[in-house]
Design goal:
The chain has about 400 residues and is α/β, with parallel strands linked by helices. The chain has helices spanning about 5-10, 25-40, 45-55, 55-70, 135-150, 175, 180-185, 190-195, 210-220, 280-290, 295-300, 310-330, 345-360, 380-395, 400-405, and strands at about 75, 90, 100-105, 110-115, 120-125, 160-165, 205-210, 230-235, 240-245, 245-250, 265, 270-275, 335-340, 370-375. It has three domains: about 5-90, Orthogonal Bundle (Arc Repressor Mutant, subunit A), CATH 1.10.10.10; about 95-210 and about 385-405, Nucleotidyltransferase, domain 5 (2-Layer Sandwich); about 220-375, 2-Layer Sandwich (Nucleotidyltransferase, domain 5). The strands form four sheets. The protein has a five-stranded mixed β-sheet with strand order 5-4-3-6-7, with helices on both faces. A five-stranded mixed β-sheet has the order 10-9-8-13-14, with helices on both faces. The chain has a two-stranded antiparallel ribbon with strand order 1-2. Strand 11 and strand 12 (about 270-275) form a beta hairpin. Helix 3 (about 45-55) crosses helix 4 (about 55-70) and helix 9 packs across helix 14. The protein is globular, with a radius of gyration of 22 Å.
Amino acid sequence: MAIGSEQESQENQPAQRDRGSNQSGLRAYNERLVLSVVRRHGGLPRAGIARSTGLSAQTVSVIMRGLERDGLLVRGTPTRGRVGQPSVPMFLAADGAYSIGLKIGRRSADLALVDFLGRVRMQLHEIYSFPEPECILDFAGGRIEDLLAVLPSEGRDRVAGIGIATPFELWSWADAVGAPRERTEAWRGVDLADSLRERVPYPVFSQNDATAACGAELVFGRGAGHPDFVYFFIGSFVGGGVVLNSAVYTGRTGNAGALGSMPVPSPNGHAHQLIEEASIFVLEGMVRECGIDPSPLWLAPTDWSALGEPLQQWIGRAAKSLAHAIVASCSVIDFPTAIIDGGFPVDVRARIVEATSKAMTRLDLQGIQPPQVYQGEVGANARVIGAASLPFFARYLLDREVLFKDA
């Protein structure tokens, strides 16, 4: 959507990112701006939208009527103040738009239909020994109709597209997943988004899985109350993201927030990357060494109690490394908040956050104000929900280039 040099000038000034224009030629941009402000605040009346965007009350009224007519905004319950007419808050309409998210994992893939509020309407799960391109494409392209079957006929016209959350360099997973190297090498040179576009009638977007999870936490989790935070998502391989001024910061090359690569102390005293200490594949190895069946790691997303003592040992090990990574992050950027989430049961997440907070108190924090460590609110589905966010930003909201990048 070309909106002229005035918008380009505004985008180059981050402090002015949420200011609109009253010129009719920028109406499409202003519509995105209004939807983005309403999303961020969870519901606003006309006066609040005008204050937040810098648009005139008349322009906001016109835009609101159009978005309501298009089914993207809905009216809330009027609230009466001391004087004047009742104030009517406007909210995003859950059924105003839908999106499909595809998450590719080490042992499984998920395909989910998500509404405009980030709620999963239907989800499909595929388990495999290791991911292969054709397997993933068959799952995604062949099961989309099953997802769309839950929508009324008019709802299909509101599907904004498909987003993919995929780990970096899938071909390098051979040893970790126990797959023949020639099978994982099939990923090298594969453009999954382009391949999927040939099979589906929707726009397709792609992003690193941990970055997508961070975006989901920003948009649908704690983001409204925490404009700056460092984010860790513990999956088969731990990763993360950086949020500054309510936008995911990916950096010049996209490596910002590659927290899995951060050096941390290992149990033997040598420096390892965080990925070697706080990833679920490390837990899997510990479980196998104790003769315990590791299948609950991918078959029982709500109950890992059968993993016993290895789970407790891994939580302590991961927490020490996460504490180092959080403190190191805060020595570069003064984050007030650190958020930890992952593909595990909620009780495991709570134990990791508690152990990490305690581990931070045992570190030398001189010269650093430690952040508050919180549990993520999106949970194990953060990657697939973050993937589904990509088409929403591409079509309806602002910050597509700041928050996510197209494939």
